[in-house]
Write a structure and sequence with these properties.
Elements (H helix, E strand, L loop, with lengths): L3 H8 L3 H9 L6 E2 L5 E2 L2 H15 L4 H13 L4 H47 L1
Antiparallel strand pairs: 1-2
Helix pairs in contact: 4-5
Protein name: MerR family transcriptional regulator
Keywords: Coiled coil, DNA-binding
Pfam families: MerR_1
Length: 124
Amino acid sequence: MYSIGEVAQMLGISTHTLRYYEKEQIILPDRNENGERLYSESHIQWLRFVLKLKETQMPVNKIKEYAHLYTEGEHTSLARLDLLVEHKQSIEHQLKTLEETNKMLEQKISFYKEVIHNKNIVKQ
């Protein structure tokens, strides 16, 4: 079991973020006899998943919805699947947009390199 500080350091996030996730019921850590938060390996795995969802622009309310569905049990599997499929489609759209933008940037960079190269040739 890990303390809130250990988990924050391990995952590269703040203790404030962990408390926020708890407040939003995205994660529900265990407590020791003094009321201090304790995190298990399964909590850490869950948090890693949550952080990946955040990195891929899933809104907190959707993560919260997914977490709530998970705690409801197996009968929510279809709803969880739908939520993840929808998010995967969003990621695929982001990837397509990034690829198109990357191509445009490559063209602009090539153009400017050519312009600069030609200016340097003329100056010589």
